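thread: overnight batch results

M.L. [08:02]
morning all. the overnight job finished for the chain we discussed friday. pasting input first so we're all looking at the same thing
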Amino acid sequence: MKNLSKPIRFFYTSQHLVWVLGLLLVLALAFYFYAINQTVYNIVERQNLEQELAVLSADIGALEFQYIRAKNAIGLETASEFGFVEQDRVTYVTRPSLGQADGIRGSI
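M.L. [08:03]
and the structure it wrote out:
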C-alpha cells in the first residue's frame, strides 16, 4: 500500500496542480482569442459578400431591362428585315393516336 500512495502523492502536489491549471488557462485564452478572431473575420467576409451581391443584383436588373427592351423592339418589321414572311396557310402537325378509348373496357 505504501508503494502505491507514494507515486499518487507525487502527481498531486500543489506545484503540479498550479502548472496544469496555468496550462489550461493559457489554452482557454488561446481558444478564446482564436474564436474572437474567426468571428470578426466571418463578419467582415459577410459584409464583403453582401456588397458584392448588391452589385451583382444591380447588374442583373440592368441586363433584365436590356432584355425586355430588346424583346419589345422585335416585331413584324424586324422579322421582315431578316427575311421572315407571314404564311397564308396554317398547317397543323399531328401524330397518329395509339388507340381509342371506348369506355367499355377502359382501354386506350
